[in-house]
Every structure is written in structure tokens, then in C-alpha cells.
Amino acid sequence: MLDSPLLVRDYVFPIMTVNIEGSNLHYKEFLGTGFLIGHRGYALTAAHVIKNGGGVLRLGGLTHQIAGAFVIDDHTWKGYVIDKAEYHPDHDIALVHLHFSPTQPPSSFLVISEAIEYASHAYSQWCYPRDILHEIVKEGQSLQRPDLVYLEGYVRRRMPEISLPSILGQSFFELSTPGGLGASGSPLVSKHRTEDKWPVFAIYVAERKSETDLSVGYGVPSEAFRDWKPKTLEGRTLLEESNYLL
């Protein structure tokens, strides 16, 4: 599956609903972005990404499921069904598990940051914006193929105890760069990353345009979810899972 140990598209992936025909997965609707942590097939995204897809359906004979898509060469995508999802009780964050079997899940270099960041902190972001889905046309038909996009920006301000319309939680970063529809669930990576570990200090969840046409994005800080212990991790926190056997 992996082309290189540090090829971002193997770890930051588009999430979509698919129709299942035998062993084939066919794209139905693009939902957002997710990213792998640890080495056991777990990933993080925004909770509303999964909920907008109608929830996760169980494996076994169903025709509609949510999946993560990965490039296996320059022209071929392979979908891995999301077979588990758990939602943070207080923030717009979801932990999901991808059914890689019999393929071995890749060990991710994306780790949850332990640092507390403040205004002016610079970041890198990788995501799959919805507005480029139809750019690739072959024989007169749109391939509806997602494409990985790179963004960068800085934290404009911290927003503790401030709510956003329709977004769960009251702890956010206001960001200089809006990601666009489809960027929800993507990782915000600190600029001071090392070669083998990239600290994710926030997860992108929303954006808005003000009355003066100023566009900004919003992310949930890592300190809001890093100590969460989802039931599926059996006592391990997200921080511990992201560093598990790296």
C-alpha cells in the first residue's frame, strides 16, 4: 500500500460513502478528511463527517457503508470500510477504525501533540476539499477523484468557552486559512515537526465568513481530546494510541 514511509496521502485520506458490489467499493458521496494514528488502523476525524454519512454500518452483506480511500498507485484507489466509530462526548471529534484486513495497517508518523499552543503558532494542513472533486475529466465524464491539497497558516486566537453554530464544543482555535468543504477532520501539524514524528496540535472542524467577508477556519486543540479514553481503546488515551509502538 505504501509508496514511501513519508508519503502524506498514505496517512491523510478522504472519507466517503460507498456502494458495495461483491469485493468492489464504488464512490457515492464525499464526506471529509481523516488521518491515521498509531499502527492498528485507527484514525481521527471530525464527528460531523461520520454523522453526515449516516453513521457507520456493520460489516456483512450491506450495500452502503462509509470508507476511507487510499491511493495504491497513480491511477488506482482502494477503499477500506470504517467498521467502528466512537464520538467524543464534548467535542466534534471521532475515533474510527478502518478494516484493513488482510492488509497490515501502516504505522503512522502523525502523533497527538502534548504541547499547548497559542496565537501566532504556524501550522501545515493536508486535506481533501470538496470543490476540486470534479476537476479531473476523462472522455467527457468527471472522475470525482479527490485530490490531496496542502495549506498553511497560523493560529489567529484561542477561543476558550466560545461556541460555534452547529459545532459541538466550546474550545477552538481561530485559524488564518479556511480549508473549504471537505477539509473537516484534517490534521493541523506544527511547523516544528521532525522527520519521524509530526505533532498534530488541532483537528480542523469548521469555517465561516464574517459580515466584512473575512474568511477563517476553526480547529479543536489537542488538549481538548488527547486524554480521551474511547471504549474501543480499552483504557488507552488518544495520546497513547497515537504513540503506540512507533
Principal-axes geometry comes out as globular
| Unreliable parts | none
Helicity, as a percent range: under 10%
Note the main sheet.
Answer: 6 strands, antiparallel, barrel
Order of helices and strands: EEEHEEEEEEEEEEEEH
Secondary-structure-derived class: mainly beta
pLDDT averaged over residues:
86
Say how many strands there are. Answer: 15
Name the CATH architecture of the largest domain.
Beta Barrel
- Proportion of residues in β-strands: 35-45%
Give the class-level CATH name of the largest domain: Mainly Beta
| Total discrete domains | 2
Radius of gyration: 17 Å
Observed structural traits:
2 domains, six-stranded antiparallel β-barrel, mainly beta, single chain, globular, 2 helices, Thrombin, subunit H, six-stranded antiparallel beta barrel, 246 residues
What does this structure look like?
- By secondary structure, the chain is mostly beta strands.
- The protein has 2 helices and 15 strands.
- Helices cover 4% and strands 43% of the residues.
- Strands 1-2-3-6-5-4 form a 6-stranded antiparallel β-barrel. Strands 8-11-12-15-14-13 form a 6-stranded antiparallel β-barrel. It has a two-stranded antiparallel sheet with strand order 9-10.
- A hairpin with a 2-residue loop joins strand 1 (12-21) and strand 2.
SSE inventory with pairings:
Layout (H helix, E strand, L loop, with lengths): L11 E10 L2 E14 L4 E4 L1 H6 L11 E8 L5 E11 L6 E5 L11 E3 L9 E6 L9 E2 L2 E2 L6 E12 L10 E5 L11 E4 L7 E12 L5 E7 L16 H5 L4
Parallel strand pairs: 7-14
Antiparallel strand pairs: 1-2, 1-4, 2-3, 3-6, 4-5, 5-6, 8-11, 8-13, 9-10, 11-12, 12-15, 13-14, 14-15
